[in-house]
Amino acid sequence: MELRGGVLIPADEAYSRRGFLGAALKVLARETGQLLADRVAPRRSFRPPGALPEAGFLAACTRCGYCVEACPVDAVVTAPPSAGLAALTPVIEPTVEPCIACEGMFCASVCPTGALVVPADGWAHEKIGELSLDAERCIAFQDIQCGVCARVCPVGPEALDLDEKGRPVILNGCVGCGVCVRACVTSPSSLALQILEF
Q: Cβ(88)–Cβ(79) under 8 Å?
């Protein structure tokens, strides 16, 4: 092996122009692939339900806007130009207008490219975000009756319920839509959504 210009070249190809160019192209392809992977991942925005993993989503989405138009509550909007490779792709800003976990998943059902796909089992295994609760901030943990989060949850008690003391409990059925985050009476909200990275 011989090192030329930062590229390690096998001895039998060390003096071949073709060998050098081939090795350089391999390095360039590897580095370009890594650069693209770094720019694409991790996911930086909440995506509509049924979104492919980020790299596939960005490749499949044509930025047609059909999903934005189909959302019954205007929760699906386009990412700003500052979003880089994700610019003009559909995102959800749960603190502005959360997804209501509509039964028809209208945004995904109108996608012509498969960037958004309605899962065969609907919302059963679909998640937009991961919900967490700050018990120190939540007034229900200070023995003040509230329960707003559980009452507004569009999925119901299989997602967010109250324990015997009236405190919220996040369950496996939570889809991470963000309705409870926006409805929370504490400021800032006792509930928070984290972006799913996949």
A: yes
